[in-house]
Amino acid sequence: MLLLNPGPVTLSERVRKSLLQQDLCHREEEFFDLQDEARARLLDVYGLDEQEWAAVLMTGSGTAAVESMIASLVPENGRLLVVENGVYGERIAQIARQYRIDYEVVRHDWMSAPDFHAIVGRLDSAQQRFTHVAIIHHETTTGRLNDLGKLADACVERGVGLLVDAVSSFGAEAIHFAHAGLAAVAATANKCLHGVPGAAFVIARHGAIERATSRTYYLDLARLAKLQAQRNTPFTPSVHAYYALVEGLRELEDQGGWEARHAHYRALADQAAKGLAAIGIAPALSAGHSSVVLRSYRLPANLTYAQLHDGLKAQGFVIYAGQGGLSSEIFRISTMGNIEAADIDRLVESVARLVGKVASAAV
What we know:
This protein is an alpha/beta fold. It has 12 helices and 14 strands. The strands form 4 sheets. It has a 7-stranded mixed β-sheet with strand order 2-10-9-8-5-3-4, with helices on both faces. A 3-stranded antiparallel β-sheet has the order 11-14-13, with no helix packed on it. α2 crosses α9 and α5 (116-125) runs parallel beside α6 (149-158). The chain is globular, with a radius of gyration of 21 Å.
């Protein structure tokens, strides 16, 4: 089965075989060697200086990393401005509410890009200063790639820390860590890094970690960072997920790094878009506003998502529905994982057969 959903991904044989390595006790030196390699390689993906940045590992999905970042890096007396234009921005607001963090939301229609002027206007008009802004880099709800550059500039000018959910962009899209406005990003192993679910991480500036608060027990970022720097761990990690993460990172390096992965994803995404357009299926967003990781498409006339999903699954493909109110309007195709051009050709052919079958039945 070829997974075209936005994680977990179809594994390469190399990563799958890494799961068969020896069982490790998480208190032995061999595990700490593995943990150290994962942390170092995560920084190497974007050429980060370990004197300025730390990669902090945790066992959980990408949401665990986002929760850790928000709960730990917004101080007790801090205020968070959440930029929401999809499900995952909404999720950050829910996290903030559950931790009783003082927050506000700048809401957008889920098909729209963030309104920079509205965001800056809210930062400047607030009676009580915001300390942080949180935004999704790749909003997987629609496949939109949100622009971080101007917002990061605005954050620097106002002394505000930018917290980025890069769960489905890390390893395939440009992230400008050199920008002084960027305080931290949260991400996961089982998307663009082609690992398995169970290993997530936050990459944060040392200064941000040093100022971290302790709202959460298991996801306490400062404690995790401190112990990992000492070749230690507070809890039992998902050891085999760490094996897969390290192997995925090695494979990423061997294949040319994030830039090469970006180019590969783009070629596949463009191929899918061209093929679907030829059978009358339009993209929900233009390529210029979409990530290379995932793109959303309008459902064909007279074909429900359930019919499309089930028909494609019978042909060996798993796609993804739209979320919330978009569930009856769009479907989504991701190009993450061990996918090649021939796979996309087969996908388009399968969709064409389903569309043709529905058209024939309607005559």
